[in-house]
Amino acid sequence: MDLLPVLSTATADLPNRQRLPHWLRRDIPSGFGHHATAKLIDELGLETVCESAKCPNRSECWSSQTATFMVMGDVCTRTCGFCSVKKGRTQALQEDEPQRVAEAAKRLGLAHVVITSVSRDDLPDGGAEHFYRCVQETRRITGATVEVLTPDFIHCKDALQRVIESAPEVFNHNTETVPRLYSAVRGRSSDYRWTLELLKRVKQEDPRIKTKSGLMLGLGETHQEILDTLADLRDHACDFLTLGQYLQPTANHLPVDRFVPPEEFEFLGDQARALGFAAVASGPFVRSSYHAREMVVETLN
Questions:
Q1: Would you say 214 and 241 are in contact if contact means Cβ atoms under 8 Å apart?
Q2: Is the torsion defined by CA of 228, 230, 233, 234 positive or negative?
Q3: For the chain, which end, N or C, has fewer CB atoms within 10 Å of the first or last residue's CB respectively?
Q4: Is 92 exposed, middle or buried (0-12, 13-18, 19+ CB in 10 A)?
Q5: Selection from 24-38, 45-59, 129-143 with the highest mean pLDDT
Q6: Distance CA 282, CA 38 (A)
Q7: Distance from C-alpha of 294 to C-alpha of 212, rounded to nearest angstrom
Q8: What is the Cα Rg of the chain in Å?
Q9: Contact 288, 70 (CB under 8 A)
């Protein structure tokens, strides 16, 4: 997700979906909260990663009147092999989008707001100034804690400083996978070492900011590779971790190598805590911003 979004990216909307193991099948909640959230997002002309990345937790989150706002459009300049967000020609930034995000967060009564974006390598600063404005306006209007889930800014390396200056409570950038699979999963534009240094730099510039990252499992990584990657993240001062199951969005995306059972996620979560992560969410349905507020509450209160 490069999203950000995205530990995650998708529900497996495929012909063989019935072959999903039993632990990846569940009832879809609905109700007034879900419809009210959808209506508000449509009214304010906003994008959410919940829809664009086909997140399997959308109904659960919307029913609870929470959402992850995706700014700077719904078209990404990256062609990652796992992500269902549209690719192609981007559009100009909407100057009033920070105000609309803040208004949506206010109306939903959110105590913790997650803001992500598509990758915008076409912009001189990769969208860093837009992130800054979204964070500042959301905090001004709502008083909520704010989490950003950003691209890697690899083509505009000085842009990260502007995001840091907005002082989000949480800075999230997903590692997504292990080093051996990086180019296949995230494309040649991304770099594993740069991702690690990005997280470390945030912590060095402002130690008050909690750093966060996540991995998708089931792409062909080994158990030892996972543990080595978690150790790398801790060595680069990463505070929060999410681990979830990769699900193939369409037949044109990377295939699932295996479905990781819940007990393995539980074991890996315990291993991560032993390494020193302050908060860990590990499970088949976990995504980058899944229960994000709970992580903040655990560590900031």
A1: yes
A2: negative
A3: C
A4: exposed
A5: 129-143
A6: 27
A7: 13
A8: 18
A9: no
CB 160 within 8 A of CB 197: no
Encode burial over 205-230: b for 16+ CB neighbours within 10 A, e otherwise. Answer: eeeebbbbbbbbbbbbbeeebbeebb
Angle at 123 between CA 119 and CA 126, to 5 degrees: 50
- Alpha carbon distance 173, 213 (integer Å): 5
pLDDT in tens, 234-286: 999 999 999 999 988 778 788 899 999 999 999 999 999 999 999 999 999 99
Does residue 209 contact residue 240 with C-beta atoms inside 8 Å?
A: no
Give backbone dihedrals phi and psi of 10, rounded to 5 degrees, phi first: -165, 160
Sequence spans of domains, the chain: 17-300
Orientation of helix 97-108 relative to helix 32-43, angle to 10°? 160
Over residues 14-32, the mean pLDDT reads 61
Using H for helix, E for strand and C for coil, what is the string for the chain? CCCCCCCCCCCCCCCCHHHCCHHHCCCCCCCHHHHHHHHHHHHCCCEEHHHHCCCCCHHHHHHCCCCEEEECCCEECCCCCCCCCEECCCCCCCCCHHHHHHHHHHHHCCCEEEEEECCCCCCCCCCHHHHHHHHHHHHHHHCCEEEEECCCCCCCCCCHHHHHHCCCCEEECCCECCHHHHHHHHCCCCCHHHHHHHHHHHHHHCCCCEEEEEEEECCCCCHHHHHHHHHHHHHCCCCEEEEEECCCCCCCCCCCCCCCCHHHHHHHHHHHHHHCCCEEEECCCCCCCCCHHHHHHHHHC
Question: Are 135 and 157 a contacting pair, CB within 8 Å?
Answer: no
pTM here?
0.86
CATH code of the domain made up of 17-300 = 3.20.20.70
| Spatial distance between the Cα atoms of 38 and 33, rounded to a whole number of angstroms | 9
pLDDT at residue 230 greater than cutoff 70: yes
